[in-house]
Amino acid sequence: MFKNILAGAAASLLALVPQPAAAQRLILPGALLLAGYRATCGPVDTMIQPIDDIAAAYKGRIILHPRVLNLPRAQQLFWYTHECAHQIFGPGEAAADCWAVEQGKIQGWLSPDDLTKLGATMRDFPGDATHTDGRGRMVNMQKCYAN
User: How many other CB atoms are there within 10 angstroms of residue 60's CB atom?
Assistant: First the structure.
């Protein structure tokens, strides 16, 4: 009987210890840190959640797959800023890519080398109804960076 009470108490205590969110985690606007950089997109909150993409945007919310948090700093910020661009400009992928690249260059977190490394990760992305394939996206992003 005493063992059961101890086991129950231990389980209750474990429930109080903060655990990493396996399913999802909501981050309020202005509270997101990506590789030590405070990432913000106005009044938009961020959800860290496993999804079938690296990131997504819905009205008032950016969703980042947890694997984004393990990417190099410039890539974390690129994907966040890309999704922020959707909040501002709507669904156009080319515009979101370009704005993210321009912001990275202006803010100093995206160097030419970082852009090349990002391109290497995107090179084999297949195209779909809304996305140009990875190679095409990189050509456009390099043009945006050059301007």
Answer: 12
Phi, psi of 63 (to 5 degrees): -115, 125
pLDDT in tens, 19-58: 344 468 999 999 999 999 999 999 999 999 999 999 999 9
* Rounded Cα distance, 145 and 147, in Å: 6
Residue pLDDT, tens place only, 67-125: 999 999 999 999 999 999 999 999 999 999 999 999 999 999 999 999 999 999 988 88
Q: Contact at 8 Å (CB) between 145 and 118? A: no
3-state DSSP call for residue 47?
strand
How would you list the strands of the sheet with 61-64, edge to edge?
25-27, 45-48, 61-64, 55-58
User: What mean pLDDT is predicted for residues 4-15?
Assistant: 40
In a domain, 45, yes or no: yes
Count of structural domains, the chain: 1
Query: Using an 8 Å Cβ cutoff, are 54 and 65 in contact?
Result: yes
Measured distance CA(86)–CA(74) in Å, rounded? 18
Does residue 73 fall inside a structural domain? yes
Sequence-ordered alpha helix ranges (H) in 42-107: 73-89, 93-107
